[in-house]
Please model this.
Amino acid sequence: MGRTYESIDDEMREWIGAQHLFFVATAPLAADGHVNLSPKGLDTFAVLGPREVAYLDLTGSGVETVAHLRENGRITLLFSAFEGRPRIVRLYGRGAVVEIDDPEYAALAARFGTFPSARAVIRVAVSRIADSCGYGVPRFEYAGERPQLPAWASRKGPDALRAYRAEKNAVSIDGLPALKAR
Model:
C-alpha cells in the first residue's frame, strides 16, 4: 500500500541515492502540447534538504523539461527499484532552471561530478512525497553507465556545445522558450 511522507528522511535519501536511473515528467499548459518523460542517470541527482532536490541537466537533443519549467514549474520525479526490494517513489513539486551563467549555478553544480555537457541544474521544491509497492516492475541488473554522452561532449568541446545549445535547445518542440541563447 502506498504512503505519503512529510520529508525525505535518511532512509529514503539513501534509497534514492542507490538508484541508477530516475525519470522526470513535465507538461506544458496547452492541452495540445507534448507531455515529456525523460530518463536520467550518470549519478546526476542530489537531495538538498528534506523537501528539496536537484539534478544536473545535461545537453541533449531535447529541452522540454527546461521549457515546461520556465512556463509553469510543474515537475514529477520517479525512482523505481530494479534491484532489491520493490519500491517506487515519486517526488512532486515546482522546479526552477539554474543555467550555467546564473549566480547560484556553481554552488549547485559542485554537488555533482564534472560533466562537460552540463547546461543547467534543475532545482525542485518538493510538495508531495509518495511511494508505492513496485510489485509490477521487473528486476534488472545494473551493468554500468553508458560512456557515449560524456565522450560526445568532450569531443565537441565548450564552444561547439554552446553553439549546439543555441541551435537545438533554445525552444521546445511546442515552440516554448527554453535555454537562453549562448
Notes: The chain is about 25% helix and 30% strand. The domain at 3-134+144-168 is CATH 2.30.110.10 (Pnp Oxidase; Chain A). The beta strands are 3-5, 22-26, 36-40, 45-49, 52-58, 74-80, 88-99, 118-132.
